[in-house]
Amino acid sequence: MIYIFLMVTLIGAVLQLLLSKTRTKNRIFEVFLLWFLVVMVGIGSIWTFMGHVFMADIVAAMIGWPAGSPFQFEVGIANLSYGILGLLCWKFRDNFWTATIIALSTFYLGAAYGHIINIMQTGNIAAGNAGYALYGDILVPIALICLLIAYKVTAKKQIEKITSEDSSLPEST
Predict the structure, then answer these.
(1) Half-sphere exposure of 55 (CA within 13 A, CB side)
(2) Cα(142)–Cα(153) distance, rounded to whole angstroms?
(3) What is the pTM of this model?
(4) What pLDDT, on a 0 to 100 scale, did the predictor assign at position 42?
């Protein structure tokens, strides 16, 4: 399912940029970051919440865990919180995006560490432990962090350019 969310994210961002009149570097990073936050984090995390909470035994089997663990409900609720944050990124920007990325990245990278330890200790190479889940837990935070840095750097350069152009204009009397 992560691949579907990724395709929707990329296609949505590209279509928005094609329909947009502004295509600065900063705008490109902003649009891709927004789509990653809303689709990959928002909708993707809510989808994960539903799996862990409403189809817990199926998800446990995909991860290679025993069914019936109450811990899955807690993981599901954590995912619900990231999903809500991701969806709110549509409305709130700037430091809200940063906080959302920090929260999600902490959880995902921690989960990746847990998957790797589980693989090393038990040899559990189920797809939900050693496959798409592990890759997503590492690659999604990296993509989000890189997009956020690029967005912030290009925004700063854009502001500096405007400021330097304004200061070079002669003052009117």
Answers:
(1) 10
(2) 16
(3) 0.88
(4) 98
